[in-house]
Amino acid sequence: MAKQALARTTDLEPIDRLEEKIKLLVGMITQLRSEQAQSMEVHARLTQEIELLRGKLAEADHTNAELTTLRDERDVIRTRVTEMLAQLEGI
What we know:
0% strand
């Protein structure tokens, strides 16, 4: 009878180890799912931030183009005023 009890205990050891490994695996899967959810939240936030920055960059490009146009206009006006002053001096 002692041999039967020993045999049952020996037979259950692999099942116990398997059960422990399954519990560890379930815990690991739970942790990975949690980490994945956090990563998805971070991804969504960063994607939104990228879109916001793209909008700001487009606005800055527009402002830069407008500034360049205004500087060019200023140079044209300066040249014309210089020419008019030269004509006035000639009179």
